[in-house]
Specification:
The complex is a heterotrimer. Chain B contains 12 helices and 2 strands; from the N terminus they run H-H-H-H-E-H-H-H-H-E-H-H-H-H. Chain B is mostly helical. In chain B, helix 2 packs across helix 8 and helix 5 runs antiparallel to helix 8. Chain B starts with a helix and ends with a helix. Classes of the chains: A alpha/beta, B mainly alpha, C mainly alpha.
Chain lengths: ~260, ~290, ~300
Amino acid sequence: MQVPSAQATAASSLLALEEVSCRFGGLLALDRVSLQVQPGEIFGLIGPNGAGKTTLFNLISGVGRPTAGSIRWSDGAINGLPPDRINRLGIGRTFQNLHLFQRLSCLENVLIGLHHSARAPLLPALLGRRSFRQSQGELRQRALELLELVDLADTARQPAGSLPYGSQRRLEIARALATAPRLLLLDEPAAGMNPIEKEELSALIRRLRSRFDLTVLVIEHHVPLMMSLCDRLAVLNFGRRIALGTPESVRHDPAVIEAYLGVSA
Amino acid sequence: MSDLSLLVQMGFGALLALSVYLPLRCGQLSLATPGFYVIGGYVAALLSTSWSALSGDGAGYPLTSLALELVVAALVAAAVALVLGRPVLQLRGIYLAIATIALVEILRVLNLNLAWSGGAVGIFGIPQPFAGPGGYALATWVLLALVCWLCARLEDMRLGRAMAAIRDDELAARCMGIPSADVKLTAFVISAVIAALTGVLAAHFLNTWNARQGGFDASITTLAFVVFGGSRIWLGPVLGGLVITALPELLRPVGDLRLILFGLVILLGPILFPQGLITPERLARLQQTL
Amino acid sequence: MVHLLQILINGLASGAVYALFALGYTLVFSVLGVINFAQGAMFTIGGYLTYLLIGGAVGANGLLAGWQLPVSLPFWLALALAGAGSALVGLGVEAMAFRPLRQRNAEPLLYLISSLGAGVVLVNLVQLLMGAESYSIPTSTLAALPSALALGGAQIRTVQVLLLLVATLLVALLTLWLEGSRGGKALQAVAEDPVTARLLGIDSGAMIRLAFALSGFLAGVAGGLVGLSVSIAGPYFGIGYGLKGLGVLVLGGLGSVPGAVLGGLIVGLAEALVPSELSGYKDGVAFAILFLVLLLRPQGLLGKPVASKV
């Protein structure tokens, strides 16, 4: 893809990574990665295992800190902020190896995502007044709607840990949506799903984007799925961004073919 | 010991158990409870013995003065917890447990040596707001009821949910926008206040207060209350506190063997009931059968 | 005028006891990831066993009142046997309080409580049998040695020097064994990664029992030595030492053998340097140091940083 000028793109973009590096001891997990995510797009990150994709998510969501470079969100730098602050700024995420509140019910998982919508005056809450009960009822209603959206309304009362794998992935999406993000980071949302589920997930992500006015950044191994789902893709290999562009241009990029097939193209 | 006195002690046990329970509910193994209990006791002992205006002119120690002590103790404990909480709660797991044990030990050594706490002798002749154990039992159980109610309401509130989330998976909770440091600090402060209020009542009830009140043993016994009763719903620590406090008294007929049996109960409790006696699931099942 | 050298030796001697204690904790911690709160009781038992084995008589209060061993063993033999006895107790604690939980994959908190329960049982058993009075191991048991050594103008109690020597010897042997022998390497493998260790054919259950036996032995010997140099101040005397040992353990860094030794020496020396007019504060020194270190370096002096994994 043609990048007119880095400056102009960064200014209009929702999220901009500039020369971001991350080092763990002797391992350079990310090496001067730059990319810009535009509002409303579905942006994909692909690359072999260990390419640094999840590390990148961790840096964006505040779970880790970059050792160099800057991460800009809307118009301010967010690198170094704690995860809860970053979430409040409008970035929600899911986890590759599922971080649900296992022992809590699906409904409670989503209610916890609604934490900041659940602010209620202390005294009525302590006294269990009608106004508090009413607001709690509405909150539950919203949580149920979110569960319905990901097709989990029937299991609202079950502990999250007891759900099948695919359902747990969708529950993570519902929980992240509850935090009212503008940017949703999905870390391998289709892992462990069968082909039909993968198709449904793809449709779900598109539906969620238009319904919540979302921008989506997604990591996924299943390349065909990513080609059809994403507006743009970045390819990481050994911590470097080796390609960036539309699915069509990435598909034919020699560097990408080499990274995936391990041969010189 | 009279039955009413035992009832008072059991109430203290349940209150201290709830004080340990609150931080544990958000995954924090803090053993600072006896320290705040001691602080509460000293606030009561110092105020009531050295400030004559509080004693009033009637026969007994006025209840308004007791109320004032409770307020002061709560404020002091909350202030100490706020100051210490930030740095201490950054520690995790067993490190947090041992740092809080260290705090309690440092406090004990200070109290043993400083003049205002009466040194090793402590403070005695603490005036009595109640004529007998009956009054204390009432006051203790009213406080216990209030704290239970607070904990029960918490389960319904977003703070309670946030605590449960942090216990289950702190990283995920933070990524869902929950300011975990603030939530943990809140739990720590409430825990400190509960322990200090209990200390105020205990100082009057025991009539004397010294550095031997609350130490490492107390830290661990209160933790045993919670683990034994169950740490996932407030009813667990209450039951644990009541039962384990009463146990040595109930075992009195077996004479010298009673502490050995007491130890056996603590040893076998976690093995036989790893979740504690009371779990949300068991409660739900109980509600269904009733 | 107390000589500086004297202070130094005293500090090192008590530091060595703390180090032995902390090593016991660390052995169990490194294989199981939990702390054995019954360690203080094993220390107590070591002290009492040593006392009984050198032919000391039971006081007037316990069930065994007036009882005495018909023979009186030399101190070193008694100390070694007491260590072995405590090692057996350690195995018992593992079987009663740890193995049932391990088989259920229980959360670490539960081990803390169950081992505490085991400690309460043991301490009260000692009290039941031998009463609550304090016992002292007479230094005359070491009749062949002078009671004090003159060293560079300072008078140093022989007992302190012995304590220091024995502790150093044990630490050295333990390190040699851990680093140099098959058994020691197997133990370390279990500590590093139990799953891989099992794949390599190491019986992790046996290694865990070994860790308990060793920690019991160390605690028992420490108890006997303290009984000789100070006294056995009733059945609960191990608890105070145990608590300080715990502080030393965390100060040095959980699971680190050199850390346990370093922590012990720092605390011992710091305590010895407390001026006599402030001696009331001595018991707080260990915890004050521990607290400050934890705030600056949460993993302890030589511990590995705790990483969170996503």
